[in-house]
């Protein structure tokens, strides 16, 4: 009797298994002070910005807030957010997410579903902890 | 003639092979605006704080600047820096650095030599890019 043994293959880890969720988000018209408070209270660095319908319209990070401090003047999230957001899909392999971050010199990606709804955030911290022992 | 073949072993990657160096640092008496400018001009999130002798006395990050914005009032780096700094040694395996970050919920470690001199910074971004393909 012949037995077929499946080939050992590397397990594919996907974004949804390591992302932080639910996503903590902010609205474009909120103040920089209020966005800062949300970052601090949650111990995070990245806030997807969503419109009234919950669709992703930007991202604001503690780096953007430091930039506002360096440059002065800005008052609201929409004045400092990045509008062209690089995102991940929940079923992307983590290697793809790592490559997107590396190629774009960023440290997190909002994870969005097919309708653009924000499901979570995957960060370089979420990925680097996979290397921990 | 007998030939000894070394056992295949997993290559051990160490911190110094992935860290960013030289370290960009700041002095405790600099203003928060000036620290913010250094972060932005260099596209980084973490600044080791060193005294006149170049010894590590703290770390200030874009997260601490967002906190200063949220809370108000602070003016200088030493008012907002974290004084108990978790560091890495240049020859630490990267898995150890990843574990330190994960266990302390931080995203970077100043890399210091035996004399406490700051050689560089290793971040979760430096580590997560090892997973990229
Ligand atoms: C607790 S983390 C929370 C945000 C996020 N997890 C991160 O890593 O940036 C932010 C705080 O950690 C501190 N911190 C960052 N790296 C550190 C290190 N190597 N040793 C000690 N504190 C550090 C910062 O000064 C800041 O006050």
TrEMBL record, chains A, B:
TM region(s), chain numbering: none
Annotated signal sequence range: none
Source species, domain of life: Archaea
Residues in CBS domain copies: 19-77, 81-133
Keywords carried by this UniProt record: CBS domain
Coiled-coil stretches: none
Annotated protein name in UniProt: CBS domain-containing protein
Organism of derivation: Geoglobus ahangari
Full-protein residues shown: 361 to 493 of 493
